[in-house]
Design a protein that fits this description.
sodium; 8 helices; transmembrane; about 170 residues; mainly alpha; about 0% strand; about 75% helix; Cation/H_exchanger_TM; potassium transport
């Protein structure tokens, strides 16, 4: 408000929303940090299982949804989508929502199941966000070395987001 008042209502670059900064550099660490709010002992004890379900699950789900929509949409006369758009649909719908499941589970009564479901849901969401961004950079008309660059971007963003989530969680604990 002060900035708008000082600039007399003229647009300011400070007030522009850069969705890439938000979705790629801010949202994944926030999501990972939320995952670390579960009882840390259970979460880290099951970290590999959670990562397996969350990451591999996203890739499997993305492949199934992408192939299914590629097969089904033309039959429903929904035409004109590119391969990249089918991949984007696959990544968007591969993120699962575990809120309902977590409502019936109690962290104190079933700590293992709760940490697996909660952790998978959080990792799944963060992976979907990063994968969606990577898919947006793919040019399917020419798959060359750029495709490996996109994979590298995905791995970089995923690993740095995970590391930031761990660091933020560690700092908030102390």
């Amino acid at each position: 408000m002060v900035l708008l008042f000082i600039t007399k209502g003229k647009s300011s670059r400070i007030l522009t929303f850069d969705e890439e900064v938000f979705f790629i550099y801010l949202l994944p660490p926030i999501i990972f940090n939320a995952g670390f709010q579960v009882k840390k002992k259970q979460f880290f004890h099951n970290f590999l299982t959670i990562m397996l379900f969350g990451v591999i699950g996203v890739f499997v789900s993305t492949a199934v949804i992408t192939c299914g929509s590629r097969f089904l949409f033309p039959k429903l006369n929904f035409l004109g989508l590119s391969g990249q758009e089918y991949l984007a649909i696959g990544t968007i719908f591969s993120s699962t929502d575990t809120v309902c499941t977590l409502q019936v589970l109690h962290q104190d009564e079933t700590p293992l199941l709760y940490s697996l479901v909660f952790g998978e849901g959080v990792v799944n969401d963060a992976t979907s966000v990063v994968l969606f961004n990577a898919v947006q950079k793919i040019d399917l008309s020419r798959l060359d070395g750029r495709a490996f660059h996109v994979l590298g971007d995905f791995l970089y963003l995923f690993s740095t987001s995970t590391a930031l989530g761990v660091v933020v969680s560690f700092i908030s604990e102390n």
